[in-house]
Amino acid sequence: MLISKPLTTSVIGSYAWPSWYVWAVEAIRRGEFGARDVEETLNDAVDWALHEQEEAGIDIVSDGEMRRLGFFTAGFYGRLQGLRELPPERRLGVPGHDQRERYEAVAPITAPNGLGLVAEFVYARERTQKPIKVTCPGPFTLAGRILPGAIYRDRVEIAYALAEIINAELRAVVQAGAKFIQIDEPSMAVHVGDPRTFLDLLSRVFEGISVRKGIHLCFGNFMGRPVAQRRYRPLFPAILDANVDELALEFANREMAEAEIAREVAAAGKFLAAGVVDVKNYYVETPEDVAERIRLLIPYVSPDFLIIVPDCGFSQTARWAARAKLRAMVAGAQMVRRELGFE
């Protein structure tokens, strides 16, 4: 059973890298590790991420996305064929989204060896007794770093090609035993287009998937920087028709703006995974801060349908801050649970 109690705690996906792992990944990229060295390092990183989550008291964990060497989507492009790498638009100056990876389609996009989710899940399953959330970038977001070239008409056509690849991967990971899959689609909140297209893409991604399904919608987190107006309202009410059980939305870094949309999510019969700690801010919330944010949501959604999570993944947050924020998040959820008589 994934949801075992009111105000269940979870994570969005990625976890912060400790200093030793940053050093090791740099050495791996320089070619200084053998294949067994790499495998051991990646396994140790996943073990460490799971341990930190369990130590904090998280109910539904992830593998921390520790095997994905690069920001969010970066590691997936190396698993795709039919792409030509392009230089970043800007190399100098302050870090920003225009310094990220770019590709051009030069042939129909394929992934003959899959996207790697099955191996990630199988290893994590053997290393924890906690329920595991399997995360995967969505097709519209993945398509955002790919120029159509002469192969595709536009970003949407690329996204449909990627949706088929992702669906095949999700079917494989469910076959391996996964019970909870989350698609990460920040671009749907950043580039508000035709809601029917977004819903159709999600439908194709989740076709034939009968386990618990979620979607994470945020406003960008590369180098801790958003890249949008940070409003969910343009997605509503259309997003409520998405074929998912759970919507994961960020609230903390927006000072709990739009908290009232929790009522609409609940009325649609979906769980709300509400971000109540700010992964972009180095202010470390106290348990009381977290509890106050949760109380703002309680009038709109039953605690049984409210999942407590960070705003986004922790990959762009220092380890010490991520660890402290995660512990405060769990403690704040416990405070409100006690107030409501659940403990």
Describe it for me?
With 343 residues, this protein is an alpha/beta fold. The protein has helices at residues 19-29, 35-56, 74-77, 117-125, 139-143, 155-175, 186-190, 195-205, 261-267, 287-297, 319-339, and strands spanning 81-86, 102-110, 134-137, 146-147, 180-184, 212-217, 246-250, 271-275, 306-309. The chain has eleven helices and nine strands. A six-stranded parallel beta sheet has the order 3-5-6-7-8-9.
Summarize this entry quickly.
Helix content is 37%, strand content 13%.
Helix content bin? 25-40%
**Residue share in β-strands:** 5-15%
> Distance between the terminal alpha carbons, to the nearest Å?
19 Å
Global shape: globular
Averaging pLDDT over every residue, what do you get?
93
Characterize the main sheet. 6 strands, parallel
CA-atom Rg in angstroms: 19 Å
- Secondary structure category: alpha/beta
The total strand number stands at 9
Number of helices: 11
